[in-house]
Amino acid sequence: RRTARNKDRRVTQANDTPNDLAAFWMPFTDNAYFKAHPRMLVAAEGMHYTAADGHSVLDATGGLWCVNAGHCRPQIVEAIRQTAGRVDFAPTFQLGHPLAFEAASRLAMLMPQGLDKIFFTNSGSESVDTALKIALAYQKARGQAGRTRLIGRERAYHGVNFGGISVGGIVGNRRPYATLLPGVDHLRHTHDPARNAFSRGLPQHGAELADDLERLVALHGAETIAAVIVEPVAGSTGVLIPPVGYLQRLREICTKHDILLIFDEVITAFGRVGKATAAERFGVTPDLITMAKGLTNAAVPMGAVAVSRHVHDTIEGSGPDGIHLFHGYTYSGHPLASAAAIATLDLYVTEGLFEKAIELEDYWADAVHSLKGARHVIDCRNIGLIGGIELEPRPGAPTMRAMDVFRRAFDEGLLIRTTGDIIALSPPLILEKSHIDRIFGKLAEILAAVD
Ligand code: PMP
């Protein structure tokens, strides 16, 4: 019977869709709905996916904010292929392999000055929890063990591990899991449609919200606070762009009270905002930067934390036992991921993709804001090659209007992403103006058609 079932499972329909979808418990998905209406992607190249029925889908979301150099780039594929045949796996505990060191050096060169120590992980969530642990280890190592409090922000997404959901600010991400880190507090988020609707680039109003940190310092005492973590631009919770001066002010307050500042750049790093990092774009240097996604163009899972030399040296210089940061993953600096990272970082430089994002930013911004006045649209926002289009929720059915747009767009050859009633766009940086025209032409058409 088992053999029969297995055989059955191998049978695929003419359109390449497997006929048994039951076993895979899909993340962040209405599993029952998907399995009744599967949308399968079976191939990808450049700006496009191919769906199981053969139709081509223009990727306006860079996979999940991660395929910054476009899909299936031969240089990256080849680097992975060659490495897989040469050194499939090598530990980086007490041993090493050259690719991990090379990937770290290459990545360090893209980071703001001073953030030149790289810890490798396998995902954004792991990068966040790693950064939080490094912050705590640093405070302990410098004799400030009382600084255990972590400060996050409302409406923040920092992945799904326990540290990340504790400092994160999404209720649905927190509520089902009663256990969260103790001693965490949150700044207010900066999204203020009443003052900032239809801002182009950075919104004008809201820098003073950084003063929330002063209030938390007054409430808890700076001597209890280890670190503050924020996304320079929050993506997953709806494209929340920092008001002019906000990040600078946050940096000043952290410096004043000797609190570490962590930028979660899982989506903003690697050209998404036209520079290697949002830190560089906004001229604000944090003490740690978390990354993932675009680091390998998403071809192999990999994350990283860039750490200031001072934080690193303080931890490494502490204690007598030789291992000063008792933390790591079997796959930290995995050879295939390292090879993919090196090839990806090469591509970003040789093709000038960060600069290209800057060059296209005005055209992109015009296109995003062309939807002002379109049916249902209550806000449009943009920075770099990120766009957010907020829809008025359908009465009694929040999120469903955006979901309808998503489904219709997919069927008509355009991949977008929605979060709540917000359409979030983050195309590969290789896109051309003609792609931008198609994305927004199609969206305008669909918005006019959905209820
Ligand atoms: N931090 C931020 C800012 C993110 O946007 C994400 C993912 N969208 C994560 C962390 C989590 O990354 P991952 O899904 O790779 O764990």
UniProtKB/TrEMBL annotation:
The coiled-coil segments of this chain are none
Q: Which InterPro entries match?
A: Aminotrans_3, Aminotrans_3_PPA_site, PyrdxlP-dep_Trfase, PyrdxlP-dep_Trfase_major, PyrdxlP-dep_Trfase_small
- The highest taxon in the source lineage is Bacteria
| CDD domains in UniProt | OAT_like
Q: Which cofactor does it need?
A: pyridoxal 5'-phosphate
The answer to whether UniProt assigns keyword 4Fe-4S to this entry is no
UniProt keywords, alphabetically: Aminotransferase, Pyridoxal phosphate, Transferase
The molecular function terms of the Gene Ontology recorded here are: adenosylmethionine-8-amino-7-oxononanoate transaminase activity; pyridoxal phosphate binding
Query: Which BP terms does GO give this entry?
Result: biotin biosynthetic process
Report the sequence similarity comment from the record: Belongs to the class-III pyridoxal-phosphate-dependent aminotransferase family.
Query: How is this protein named in the record?
Result: Aminotransferase class III-fold pyridoxal phosphate-dependent enzyme
| Source organism of the structure | Alteraurantiacibacter buctensis
